[in-house]
């Protein structure tokens, strides 16, 4: 009965497929899907887009997280807009169902992270010509399942992990699985009753079982795969025949398990010229290795150096035979010496490279080597003798070429002294389109005869000045240049010269650790390069120490930034970077952001500079947290920028200003401390900013607000300054709940500042006056606590100023029950509120307090000691 049901289901699927293949289609269109409010899209779910699409349409999915189970019944292309599976994620809405179920031909799925199904991430049902590429599938029961006569499909360049089965092929043929990475699954690739498929260029590692071929899975081709470190076995064959298995790299405790009585599979091809998987010059069989370092067959030579061992291999000691087993190329050390002393294999570095294989080491003896070196062998190490970097000198034979030009992955260059004239656009070391290289412990000095200054000095005459970059090209080349290269490490190099010392251009996820760069226009320049980490570098005596240009997601940690002429660290048009735990001193401007937003600057110390931190020209929504600015001209300066948040920063002993906002709006200053300056905190022509819980002290001006409006200053402490809070030509600001005390002249000064609100402040022990008002009418001043020898001084016209609000039942600043005017006290005890009675016990003095004819507190708060006294 079960067999009948299965046949009926197969007939239904075939009929459905034929129907869909013959259906008419409209002109192809592009349909957009997104589920964020700020995205302009056609649909908010992928299934809705599929349902509305016509055959041949393209569905583009914007970044986001989508919880869906999607049935695809039309030949459409479904792709992520970014092409990056890390930001476009599809999770199973119903974990018991497939995430994608494909019921028709010629479907394409590209660029997604697909996870969370107890069935399959992508499930094919009897389809032809589909493509699944560049996806990440994880935590599904089956990553990709080709089922029931699914043929001529392509599964390419996917990452599959943490599934019961990575890729399953059942009753299907003529499919191509290539360039996939499959790991941490119970079974990496499983074929059942599936002939004539091609499995090539995949990495299948860290699974319990790598590949299984069972049932009528005959005539498949397995080539160029890395099948390594699988827990129980590499490949399991059960009663299959005619499979061609060659040029694979096997390295498992058990490489092959066969349940066949007589193996009819083919384990090698005819010896053919071509680079094999071990890097040898001929194709034949497979590499047979084990995690304990043994290569099989053991003890067999490759006398003719063709990369094929001279004896056949009975695989795992069974009847299975690889007649042309490949030699695993063991790394060797080649030596180079062009002077007296130790005999060496070669006299030039290039000759050694030309004779090296992947994984070899080239040991370079002390001497002077005049060469331009091309490095094209993967996993090659070029190193000086230990401790000999100063004496192992490499100079360019031609200044019109790179000294070292690296186009192979995994190269290490260590301990060399590269000192040479190198003309732009060449470099001492250039990495071009490579990964996993290590450049470490080198001394690199590049120079030329013509010196062109590339950066003008900073004009610091005004807080509104700006940095001018005169990007005129220099004749000098680069010290280290990374072009379109990722995941490389530059560690502990000393680089000096005239132009740009280290340049990252369109390069991602590299690590630059503990390098020292000095004496240049740009120490480190990160150009259009994202997600790199710069840690522990010394940036000194350059025009600009580190310059990030149009670059995002980079991390600069633990840098030492000294004596740079223009700036220590400069960000231009760069978003989402982190600068932390660095020390910058004696730079013109230590840390500068221009047109750079949403960056995090935390726990840095900047000192003895014109500007400690300078954010300007629409550098918006940055966060400065826990930084310290010491002994600068201006500690933290924000100019023409909005939405920045400053928390827990300290600005001490600034010559001009500790923290300043110029022409800036909607920023927040929270829990900062500024002291010992001309101005601790200065707002100029800035509006809608919030200053909360800041402490300003021991300055000429605690907070100076000039030509600024609609700012909120609350819960701040301003003490031991000359002026506590100074408002000049500023309107509609609110000062609430501040503690303003012991200032040597005035607590609060309001000059030509109208329509401000002062409430709930404690203005105490200020030497001359608590509140000084000059031509500042229409202000509202209520529920403040005044206790100064002279509480107020009013000059000019202050018409419209109210010293009380409407009497309301609400707690006042003395914890009384009614809120009305202010509490007027003096240290001598003879203040108005201290000497006038409150007979009815409402906490309000029985008579008004006339400050002058324009300003009367009609509801002055009463000292509790005068309440109910007659």
TrEMBL record:
Pathway the protein acts in: Protein modification; protein ubiquitination
Positions in coiled-coil regions: none
Carbohydrate-binding/sugar hydrolysis domain sequence ranges: 61-214, 364-527, 565-706, 721-847
Keyword entries, A-Z: Repeat, Ubl conjugation pathway
Pfam families noted in UniProt: NosD
Signal peptide: none
SMART domains in UniProt: CASH, PbH1
Entry protein name: Cell surface protein
Keyword check for Protein biosynthesis: no
